[in-house]
Structure formats: C-alpha cells, structure tokens
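Extended Data, record TraI domain-containing protein
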Amino acid sequence: MPISRCFCTLGGQQQLPSRHSPMLPASLLNRFRSKPAANPPLAVVPALPAGVWPVQSATELLQPHAKLLARIRALAAVSDDYWHNLYQPLLDNFATFVQQTPASEAHHHCCQGGMLTHSLQVMKLALESRKGKMLPPGAAAEDVNQQQHAWTYAIASAALLHDVGKPCSDQKLRLCGADGQATPSYWQPLHGALQSGYYRVEFVRERQYRTHELLPPLLARQLTPAAALSWLQQDFPGVFKAWLGYLSGQDEVAGIMGQIVTEADRQSVAADLSGGHPLHTQQIPAAKAKPLSQRLLTGLRFLLDEQQLPLNRKGAAGFFDGEALWLVSKRVLDELRTHLEKEGQTGIPTRNDRLMDELQQHNILTPTAAGQAIWNAEIRLSDWVQSLTLLQIPAMLLWTDASHYPERLAGSITPAGQKVEETPPNLPLSGEGQEEDAIAVPLDSSPDKGRPGGVSSYPETVAPTPPSPTPDTDDAGQHFLHWLTTGLRTGKHKLNTADARLHVVREGLLLVSPAIFKDYDLGNWEYVQKRFSKLGLHRKQGNTNIWRYQVSGQKKRGVVQGMLLPDALGVLGLGYLPSPNKALSLPETETSSNTGDS
C-alpha cells in the first residue's frame, strides 16, 4: 500500500503517489504552501529575576539546535512536503509545549532547556539506530519497503515524546508577570502550550512517582499532527500498535520500536551524566567529563528521589536520623552500580571497596573514628532490632534543601560501642516550642585529672597564635580545628541556616554544641570537645564554656547554644564570613555582662 494513501483519502482527491516520496493532496499542499504571514518583530525581553523565563516561539526554541535538527531531517530521508507537514509540526508543537523546562531536578539534563535538548538527542539517536534495520523484523522485502517511512516516523515521534509527561507530573510552571514576580496561577498543560508571558519552574514534592510515564499517550494526541495519527492508524495498524505500546509503557507490545527508543534514551542520559560524547553525535559539543564521585552521588539522589531505596522501616535500605542518612552498605552499592550500568555509564568499578574509596576520598562518606568507611551499628525500630554494616552520608550532600529531608527514623541508630540514645532534634531555628539542642552545662562539669572538683581554669582571652592549620600531631582538638577550617574554606559546612552547626553572631562565630562535635566524631565527641576547649581559642561565659542564644523569627522562639570563637577570621585564617544571623541574639543580661570580655 503506498505511503501517500492516507493523504489522498483524507483530502478526498486521488493523486499518483511516488514510491519513495509520498504525495499530499492539493488541498493540503495549497494550505501549507500559501505565503506565510510576516513574523512580527521580536519584543524586547525585560531583565528578569534568575529562574524566570519568557515564553518563546518554536522558532526561537529550536534555533539553537539547528545542527541537530539538520541531522534528524537527513536521517528521516523524506520529501520536503512530508517533512513540513508531519515532522515540523510535531517538533514545533513539542518545543512550545516543553519550553525551557529541565528534564529533571538533579539528574540528567537538569539545566535550563534540558528537556528539549534531551528529547531531540533521543530522537536523533533512535533514527540512527533505525537506519540499518529491516522493519518489521522478518517481513518480506516488499513489506519492508512499503512500511519504511511509517516505521521511521513512528520511531522518531516516540523518541521525541518519551518524556513529555514530566512537565505535567514532576514540575509545575508558575506564571509570572512582566516584572518577573510570580502570580497565583499555574500553567494547565492539558489545555495546551503556553502562548505568551513569563514563567518559572517549580518541582512537585509530593508527586505520584512515575506518573509521567502514563501521560505520553494522552499528550501525543495533543502534539502529533492529526494527519500523521490517521495515516498510521488506518494504513499501518501494526506500526501504530507498537507506537501506542511504547508510549503506554507496554514493552511486550512495543517490541523492536521500544528497544530502539529505550537504548537511545539510555545513551543520551549516560552521555549527560558522564560528560562524554553520546554515540554517533558529532554535532553535540564536547562536555567536560564529570568525576566518578559526582556521578555516584547523582545516582544516589536519583534512587532516593524515585523511592527505589526504601527508608526507615524494617528491612529498609537506609535510615535517616535527622542529620545523616545511614545506608546498608552492600545492598545500596550493588543497587547503585546496577543503576549506573543500566544508564550506560562507563568506568564504574565492579568492586564495592573501590566505590567506597571514591566516595570517602571526596568527603561524601562520614568516616568512623578509625577513618573507615563502614560503620557497624544497631538499628532499633519498635520491636525490630538489627545489627548492620552501614555507610553514613550527611543529609546536606543528598538534599540541597532541609525541607526536602525524609521523615526521621522513629527509633535509634547506635554505632558499635556506643550507648543507645535518641538522636537530638534539628536546630529549632524555624520551629516553635521546641526544646533546646542540648542541656547547657559546663563542658568540664565532670572531674578532670589534676583539677579538683573539675573547676575550669582556662584563660579568659583568645590565644594569640592559633595552632597549625595542618596539624602534625595526634591532638584531637587540633584535628577538629583543621576539619572546621577546611570545611568553611570549601563551603562544606553550612552557615546561618536552620540546620547549620555554625552561626555568625555579633560576638563572633558560634559552634553549636554538642552537634558540631558529633558531626566530626559521633563516637568520641566528648573527648574531642574537651581537647578543643583546651586550645583556649574560645571565649568563656563566666564559669562555663557554653553560650546560650535566643532564636527569634516570625512567631518563632527557641534557644541554641554552643562555644563562641570571638576572632573567627584570625583563629581560622579565613578572609570572609557572612553577616551575623539576625535570628540569634544574646539575652540582655548576658549581653551587658559578657560582651566586654575578649
């Protein structure tokens, strides 16, 4: 059956079809060949806040991908009429629908415009794979020749539309005014593409996972030209069934078409995550290769975001104590490796100890007091108790916003050799009516050797010369100081946030205690804290080393306490610290009686 049959019957006219270049009816040709209206002059786009983007036309959105589109058109190998009436409308509709949305929040193609870039890459890779295949498999040469353009179009459109559900389920587009300020309104994707204005992308937190995989059949009807749908459905029901099967997530129905598009998707994802060249893509600019440690961390974020690593239940893969995520070592590393290999990433070590070395060398894993990656700990959840080997990763490395943290374990995590105790709650900077971070008592309230009664006799002033920033000593206090300084210089330690252990105050730098020392060494934090206090770098408050600060905000109250470094820049050798945290202040009585000490 000639490829042009559907156009002839749809147009109500009979034309002589070409074997390799399908013809269109005169009614359609006249409509598409009519002189297009002159494009209106482009409006001047005002300066917009970061993350607010203007709605753009298909021409504007596709122009940066001109080389990629030229390659796609060459691979499609169809006449101009066929391209302009079937392929180009599909591309235009898709581009205006997804606009400049990213393909993900923190995984592949997570940059501005990532969705369009990724989808076009998958389309091109799928067409390159289709080029050397006889479809349908095992068919006679005559059938293969007759169906070739139908298979090509079905594969190309399936590849382009494979992730089209994400802007509907994983993201929300908030409409903005010309000044860039957000409005209460959101884009309704099922009503059609945005036509004008400005928007910003917001990610859905409480979304129904994998819903985006169910939406392509619904949206395909909105974005695919009606003539193409009728052509496939009426003249090539087998191709149409495979096309629908792929868009519906039914691999057994999609068959070879699903295999081609899935492999193309895998290649595009792997290339973006690894920073290497996608296969067969000379037109794609080279990207800087991403280190293995960052690829491992990105993979972990993806598995957590997609809820593929169950948390905080019996037999879970991980447990969250409010500050760090404790992951069952072998199970999680095996799943992480499998995930990365499925994405097509290369250079992934086959041994778990190599993966742990990579994570630990880049300060992603929190080591034990002995410097090991593996923790032996007891997990207690109601009447369920289990001893496990675990990896500990600070929550801030996995979730950029503390509001995205998972629920805290309703139980306890006790490293080997430690007493069972519940992990203290997060710093209550944004809470109301919460308890203090810890009981404010002198650090040396227990008797100390050589000091009767444990009375502190530390100097009241800051030592004039801080210890070496790279201590050649076994002293735990100096090593803590080095860890503290390095973390501030590299940005690893948070400052002035609700979950931070460090706060700039008018009087200096507040080290939230004992939390900051527990972050450094959970098993020996009391000893580390005592050794650090002996360096004499902090300012005392009367007979105690602990300062209590009031926390205030919008109807929020609380107390946070810790050790105070009055000359943080000099002690830590830093060139800069941010402005004081306005939410923290000393009680008036303590301000008047203590701030004069130095």
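Summary. Residues 166 and 511 are 42 Å apart (CA to CA).
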